[in-house]
Write a structure and sequence with these properties.
single chain; alpha/beta; eight-stranded mixed sheet; four-stranded parallel sheet; 23 helices; 21 strands
Length: 640
């Protein structure tokens, strides 16, 4: 707890400093810390770092930051120095240090803290009344509107043709570690007393209140109530720093574990028991609950185009519906976990970009590991063989770019570590069994043993992109010590993980579609259109295409169309998805209705009521996929 409070104070001081720093100076810090691969360490610990790259917390000021910039700028190339020189001139010519006057008065609480930090970073001078847990939807919307107004004014003056898209909004809630409910018996008064807590009665009460977002201004204060507030406030400060770096708002919703856990548990039970009827009923119920909490926040999302959304939650907000589709299909969505707290600190504060050339994706590592008698052992390998014989690969000699798949089969922990450390591939696909028991942590099953990725993060190289074709790598009904979070802890920038068990045949097909999209789609965007591509957009585009492909398969399976219609409907969907058209879903529904000779409303009804939780919706994007940038030939080489 002492460490968390110190981090909170450090974050708050750095935020106040950032408010005072002129914007060009702050931009120079961001550029230099990333492109020189050196970071200014701020802290009072005696760490073994070159003195020019560290300073004590109390020494952070304009002069120290400027000194840091000037000292390391000579490590840059001539082109990079020219960029920095222009920013330096702008900084030195700017003698203003004024806040923007306003007549804004806000209520400052857990629900508005992140947005108010963002407004302070934008140098808006406002007044506020301090609360702890006061929830007011009106106050949240007011802060969002002000941030969006400033964001709009800035966007009017930026050259949109050379700027990559940024997230347009963060959606966060009041979720906490699901272990509080998954292993409820561990948090009773007697269990807490046996673990040595001084006041187990008060702690148990606090845990129950936290689970249902039941703490408000009238709640009697105690050491554990204060601890809960400080931990939640730390998350809000971290989100506030993230918002400040991206100039975006956060829509805070009062959704808690208790609002969803029982239905999440039922979905898990029905899915694991292959009870499709029960699964459909529970999933539709989940969507209704999510709709009640998200409808106001979703009003800030585009109705015509795909927005970029960051979810900060332990709950599957991606499955909420917006404008006829799951959020993760309608928009480009990725997520940060709230728990464990130390991991949230790491991933939310990581704002560095990774630039990768397209040719690097010609080397893909697939790690498969099964027992010899496993019936699904050859599912992916047989499809990889088919992929290698596809027409575009026969013509590879005439192409500059070709996806080569390096499939390895480690049997144990040591062989897995060696395989990871010997590879420089930017993307690694894990093809094996996964699991996550109610009492334990996430594991992957190698041929000879099951291991937790947490056990190898200190000794194994983690690629920037991890794709987990395994069951339960981030399950919705287990605690948050998942395999996906372990990869993030180990240094992966983004992880595509499963929210439930996945079907082997369908998951292997999903992976082959990923390889095909890399082979066929990347060269179109990078070489022909000559524009850079964010991994978040690439992956969301694939999930979107898979959604409609699986929908067509559902129509065939339920005998609503013949198999001979599949190619035509896939073509109609593809024309709307790559590149993504405005109101793409409306166009696809219209095309499908015409081909099926039914009303558009009936097509939408089938999606809403019959086509529930297809396999593609089980894949959630974790981390910062938007910060992995596949460079176009015209990319400005700031990071070279």
């Amino acid at each position: 707890m002492v460490t968390q409070l110190y981090l909170l104070k450090t974050c708050q001081k750095l935020m106040r400093l950032k408010v005072k720093l002129r914007s060009s100076l702050y931009v120079m810090v961001l550029i230099l810390t990333y492109h020189c691969r050196e970071t200014l360490y701020v802290g009072n610990s005696d760490v073994n770092i070159n003195s020019k790259y560290k300073c004590k917390l109390d020494e952070v000021n304009h002069q120290r930051i400027a000194s840091y910039i000037y000292e390391i700028s000579n490590e840059l190339s001539e082109l990079q120095v020219s960029y920095i020189s222009k920013l330096r001139e702008l900084y030195e010519d700017d003698t203003s240090n004024h806040m923007i006057d306003s007549d804004c008065i806000f209520n400052r609480s857990i629900f508005t803290e992140a947005n108010l930090i963002a407004l302070s970073s934008l140098r808006l001078d406002y007044e506020f009344e301090r609360y702890r847990y006061e929830y007011s939807e009106e106050d949240i919307l007011k802060t969002i509107n002000v941030i969006n107004l400033i964001r709009k004014k800035i966007s009017e003056n930026k050259p949109s043709d050379i700027i990559l898209r940024t997230n347009s909004i963060v959606i966060s809630d009041m979720s906490v570690n699901l272990d509080l409910q998954v292993n409820e018996s561990e948090y009773t008064q007697n269990a807490l007393k046996n673990k040595g807590f001084d006041d187990p009665v008060s702690l148990e009460k606090t845990i129950k209140l936290v689970q249902r977002n039941g703490i408000d201004e009238k709640t009697k204060r105690s050491q554990y109530i204060d601890l809960a507030y400080n931990e939640r406030n730390l998350i809000e400060v971290l989100i506030g720093i993230y918002l400040s770096s991206n100039i975006m708002p956060c829509a805070k919703i009062p959704l808690s574990n208790s609002d969803l856990y029982s239905v999440l548990k039922d979905i898990g039970i029905n899915d694991r028991n292959h009870n499709q009827k029960g699964l459909k009923r529970k999933y539709i119920n989940l969507r209704k609950v999510l709709h009640n909490f998200t409808q106001e926040a979703f009003e800030y999302l585009s109705e015509r185009n795909s927005s970029m959304v960051k979810v900060v939650s332990n709950l599957p907000i991606e499955w909420a519906y917006h404008n006829g589709l799951p959020l993760m299909v309608r928009h480009t969505v990725s997520r940060f976990p709230v728990s464990p707290g130390w991991l949230a600190n790491k991933v939310i504060l990581d704002t560095s970009n990774i630039h990768i050339d397209m040719n690097s994706f010609s080397n893909i590592l697939v790690i498969s590991s099964f027992r010899d008698d496993d019936i699904i052992k050859e599912h992916l390998s047989s499809k990889i063989e088919l992929f290698n014989t596809m027409p575009f690969n026969r013509e590879a000699r005439d192409k500059k770019f070709k996806v080569n798949i390096n499939r390895q089969e480690p049997s144990n922990r040591e062989e897995l570590i060696a395989t990871l450390n010997s590879s420089s591939a930017p993307i690694v696909v894990f093809d094996m069994h996964g699991g996550h028991s109610e009492e334990g942590i996430g594991v992957i099953s190698l041929k000879n043993e099951a291991i937790s990725i947490l056990d190898i993060v200190q000794v194994a190289r983690m690629p920037p992109i991890v794709v987990l074709s395994s069951c339960d790598t981030s399950p919705i009904d287990r605690n948050n010590y998942s395999t996906a979070n372990a990869f993030l802890a180990g240094g992966a920038k983004t992880v595509l993980a499963s929210a439930l068990p996945i079907l082997s045949d369908e998951s292997s097909t999903f992976i082959i579609r990923l390889f095909i999209r890399l082979q066929e789609y990347l060269p179109i965007v990078i070489d022909k259109e000559k524009r850079s591509l964010q991994w978040s957009s690439f992956m969301s585009g694939m999930i979107r295409r898979t959604f409609y492909t699986e929908f067509i398969d559902h129509l065939i399976k339920t005998k609503k169309i013949g198999r001979d219609r599949k190619r035509k409907l896939n073509f109609e969907a593809g024309m709307c998805l790559d590149p993504l058209r405005e109101e793409f879903h409306s166009h696809i529904i219209s095309a499908f209705a015409k081909e099926m000779r039914i009303d558009e409303s009936e097509v939408q009804r089938i999606i809403d009521e019959d086509f529930v939780l297809p396999e593609c919706l089980k894949y959630l994007q974790y981390g910062s996929p938007e910060r992995i940038i596949i460079n176009s030939p015209g990319h400005i080489p700031l990071s070279q």
